[in-house]
Amino acid sequence: xxxxxxxxxxxxxxxxxxxxxxxxxxxxxxxxxxxxxxxxxxxxxxxxxxxxxxxxxxxxxxxxxxxxxxxxxxxxxxxxxxxxxxxxxxxxxxxxxxxxxxxxxxxxxxxxxxxxxxxxxxxxxxxxxxxxxxxxxxxxxxxxxxxxxxxxxxxxxxxxxxxxxxxxxxxxxxxxxxxxxxxxxxxxxxxxxxxxxxxxxxxxxxxxxxxxxxxxxxxxxxxxxxxxxxxxxxxxxxxxxxxxxxxxxxxxxxxxxxxxxxxxxxxxxxxxxxxxxxxxxxxxxxxxxxxxxxxxxxxxxxxxxxxxxxxxxxxxxxxx
Length: 320
Ligand SMILES: *Cc1c(COP(=O)(O)O)cnc(C)c1O
Prior knowledge:
Elements: E1 12-18, E2 21-27, H1 38-52, E3 57-61, H2 67-79, E4 83-88, H3 96-103, E5 107-111, H4 116-129, E6 134-137, H5 144-164, E7 170-175, H6 179-191, E8 196-201, H7 206-223, H8 230-235, E9 238-240, H9 253-266, H10 275-288, E10 295-300, H11 304-319
Parallel strand pairs: 2-10, 3-4, 3-6, 4-5, 7-8, 7-10, 8-9
Antiparallel strand pairs: 1-2
Helix pairs in contact: 1-2, 1-5, 2-3, 5-6, 6-7, 9-10
The structure holds pyridoxal-5'-phosphate.
Pyridoxal-5'-phosphate binds at residues 37-39, 67, 140, 174-181, 274-275, 301-303.
């Protein structure tokens, strides 16, 4: 498995009425590799690139709760090559993603946040000096290959619209490094369309977040030799930071309530760091801007192990 052009698009389910609109959900959490999610979608493209070269180990970067590191560690295990993860020093519990990366045999080097860049370079040099050929994957699956993954996801969305004879007015999802966002926006620029693509930020402020999405989109478009003015690209980016509620790993009652309600109503798990926050943010956005009678798509970007971290932490509260 793990073919780049996934033979089948991930499902889009109709969930029914949502605040006076029709809500659909694209289940990237069901991508058939390592618990799915956007990091699995991106990883397929990195895997293809890895296999094209003569590489024999993988180096990447991410925190202890990172979905990306779990997926990449799984990919390395599947390829039978060592995986080196550089992680920033932080106060996080032993999360399921961390546990899974360990299970896959990944080696972790923990450094202070300011030393991450240097640590990656050192690791790459050390491995090369040992006669290995390390393949580097940016944190979160950032870069043109990651953007390509969500450019292709946008094509899947278009295909669905055409087959169903409908068009989405809004597309919502959780945005972090902005690669998912950049890929979707580039898809819209190249393939056309007028839906509003709205990234609900999980950590970054709108100013900075938007600049990074813009940078990634321009980099991707110029690699494809597509001519767009930076103003046109910028006008397509809607980066919303109104629903951060404290950044990564924020504990918010409203988000927990949203997660409980979505699971009870539809049987779909969300997590507090990304998808739960974005789903709740989408609801708040729709209320704030009085969006009604629209076709709305939510992209479920995965993170299922984080759902269980949340469950586990509530269980510990009960045990005490
Ligand atoms: C990483 C991640 C995101 C954010 O994706 P970016 O491409 O980094 O913006 C959203 N949801 C989940 C579950 C993630 O793991």
